[in-house]
Design goal:
mainly alpha, Four Helix Bundle (Hemerythrin (Met), subunit A), DinB/YfiT-like (chains A, B), homodimer, DUF664 domain-containing protein (chains A, B), MST-like (chains A, B)
Chain lengths: 176, 176
């Protein structure tokens, strides 16, 4: 799905509706830069906290998977997370103290595996919809209308926002 | 141009080609969140440095205007910045030591004025192009092809990346 020769093209993607392909192009680029930003980090680096209120890079990676999963459920199934799903993803969604306590001790492969599994499900789900689906609206934040294109834009813009923080934290990791 | 009731819609925008409207929808949302992240900051807060290698929030704001100006020139005029333009924008483009030394002492209105002036020029420029223009490609990074849609996507994704850092810095400003 992620063709490295086409990583700088916002364009059609085989098997997807035109606008869906553009959206996935942007999601792919965002993920490409996330993966680059965390390359070769070890367990200690993934757990590192800049200060008492910082999120670890590992927790932010799991947050990306959690947000994407939550939007799969809300936009494709029109529901919130159930108890079982909240047990799996709730901490990574909320971050904060619980995130600092519970999300740690994992190698990079753990996080990459979660990201990949959720992303593969996104690829599958998007194959089933057309562009009209992206433009359907509902009430979203502050009583205003959002369309599904925006909701999925938000998924990758949240990732980019935290990738900026990951880069800042990475450049301040203690020297080995 | 920024209709607050339509801030969560990626959709057509009156006066622009369809894909251009979608791109501007995303640029508008990114800017909306940037403005929210810097609301009410005073001069000291805009100049605050998290540590010796940090960019100030003010410098990051000027960086957004500089990047956007540079892409106006590269994509609409197919050239790099000239000497005069580099004198105006070079420091904000590069940030780093020179940014820490030279970009400070301004109130929020100074930065907001720069952002608005450059954005208004973007709105004007985009009125002159059609969707085909967005899909024209040229060699870009690492010898790979990029289309203009990607180049402008990069303008707002760079803003979102640094907005994540602005939020991190803002939440760590010394208490008044």
């Amino acid at each position: 799905m992620m063709d490295s020769d086409r990583i700088y093209l916002i364009a059609d993607m085989p098997g997807y509706a035109p606008q869906v392909g553009r959206l996935l192009s942007m999601m792919n680029y965002a993920r490409h830069t996330t993966l680059e930003a965390v390359q070769h980090l070890n367990r200690q680096q993934l757990d590192y906290l800049l200060d008492a209120r910082s999120n670890s890079i590992g927790a932010l990676l799991l947050h990306f998977a959690a947000v994407e999963y939550a939007y799969q459920v809300s936009t494709f199934e029109d529901r919130g997370l159930n108890e079982e799903e909240l047990a799996e993803w709730g901490t990574a969604l909320d971050l904060g103290d619980a995130g600092r306590e519970r999300i740690n001790g994992h190698d990079l492969d753990y996080y990459l595996g979660k990201l990949e599994a959720v992303r593969n499900r996104t690829y599958d789900l998007f194959r089933s919809v057309d562009d009209r689906w992206l433009y359907e609206q509902e009430e979203f934040w502050y009583g205003k209308q959002a369309n599904r294109y925006f909701m999925w834009f938000h998924v990758f813009e949240d990732e980019i926002n935290h990738r900026g923080q990951i880069r800042l934290i990475r450049s301040r990791l203690p020297k080995e």
